[in-house]
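An instance follows:
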Amino acid sequence: MIFTSLQNLGFTSYEAKVYVALVRNENATVSTLHDDSGVPNSAIYGALKKLEKRGIIEFQNTKPMRYRCIPPEDAMAKLKNDYSEECDIAFEKLNDIYGESTTETTEELIWNINGVRNVTSKVIQMMEAAKKDILILASSTPFRTIAENHASLKKDYTTIIGVMNRKAGEEGISVRVISSCEDEAKKIKNLVPLATVRVNSIEEADSKMKSFVIVVDNSEMLVDILKDGDGDADLSAVWTNGAEFSSVISHLLSAKWEISEKYVI
């Protein structure tokens, strides 16, 4: 797990293994790092040079040379700072390019989004951008239930609930949820007291659908479907900010909202 996390931060496989070996040893020679990490001697020097360039290790000019890492807390703080600065630079440049390349279009485009992190990040982004209304249709297998059963979704679900509370409370935005059962409606109402919740039972459904629909400001929509694999859950979704398509889905959800029963605690 630690190797994967370091690689997600931009380390190569060899750099991650050498760095962990350095953390494990207060200070070490190349020979020690080879024995501890399993990285070939020829590759260790290159990895050490990259880690030194990152500013998270130090060396002693002895024979043989000895290396040590700075405290992990300081190393992670430096990596975060460097990452933040690079993100700011990349954002500025990419935003300039994006501004130059975008053109007015009336074409209604629907985009596919795959992966738990990507889908839930999009949901959070949509909610954060809401100015007037958030309308959600929960499936027969609620997102809350799915999140409770899959570790990768728990943190995002907590974030989503937090955004809903802030939007409904501090910003006074309408947050409406159509639930498939009273038990789920009760839990949503307890978690987001200022949300308006209605129940539209779909007990007659042949199978437990694992999906939900969210429409924001009648102009942006996302439909997601959860897939259970051998390990943790995964999500895929379709998203559009095409005005006509979003308006149609919003109209259908609004119609469903009107025929649903208001949930009262």
The chain has two domains: 2-72, 111-262. The beta strands are 57-60, 66-69, 111-114, 133-138, 174-179, 196-199, 211-216, 220-228, 233-240, 261-262. The two ends are 44 Å apart (CA to CA).
